[in-house]
Amino acid sequence: MTITITAFERSPDRGRGLARDMRVRWALEEVGEPYEVRLVTFAKMREPAHLALQPFGQIPTYEEGDLALFESGAIVFHIAERHAGLLPRDANARARAIAWMFAALNTIEPPIFDRALATILERNEPWYEQRLHSLELTIGKRLADLSRRLGDADWLDGAFSAGDLLMVTILLRLKGSALLDDYPNLLAYLARGEARPAYKRAFAAQLAVYTAASAG
Ligand SMILES: N[C@@H](CCC(=O)N[C@@H](CS)C(=O)NCC(=O)O)C(=O)O
Fold this sequence. Notes:
Blueprint: E1 3-8, H1 21-31, E2 36-40, H2 42-45, H3 48-53, E3 61-64, E4 67-70, H4 72-82, H5 91-121, H6 128-150, H7 162-171, H8 184-195, H9 197-215
Helix pairs in contact: 1-4, 1-7, 1-9, 5-6, 5-7, 7-8
Glutathione binds next to helix 4.
């Protein structure tokens, strides 16, 4: 059955792979499932057809036969449940990998995403510096704890899992900021994620979309 996901026709991140279709593309590449992409504009995302798939008018969505899903975490989880390679077989190890998926989405992503939004939308507010400082304090605490837990391991809990996949895509938003400077093990963790052939294929695919949109 054909898998179709949605992605931005012209991603605001200019092809840096930070939009959330990237994690879905990467998961599909890891498990070797081919997929098609329906590109959408911001206007299309507010139309009834898209809102029926994604109640908040966002990307990504996932369609496969009569299944339609939204929320990138739920989509990655679905892919990991249906195909080998992203979740361990052992029940306890699997539960721990799922806990890392939730940690990435619930504990690590919110302050990182809020910081990114603040730098775009709140830059001219009188309280901007204070807000940025407070978000960066929270992020710093999270990174320190994550770095301590990762230690010198390659991945968060044994073999690479969907938990690592989500964590890497989320932390990559900080690449180039000074926030990761104190954590060489997290930088190495990101580099390991980016070096995976499946990541590279997914990144190239989303970049090709942006490049084509810019040329057109
Ligand atoms: N929690 C959702 C967030 C989806 C989301 O924020 N998507 C962004 C692109 S990365 C989007 O569509 N933004 C446009 C908007 O919110 O209107 C998920 O993980 O799928």
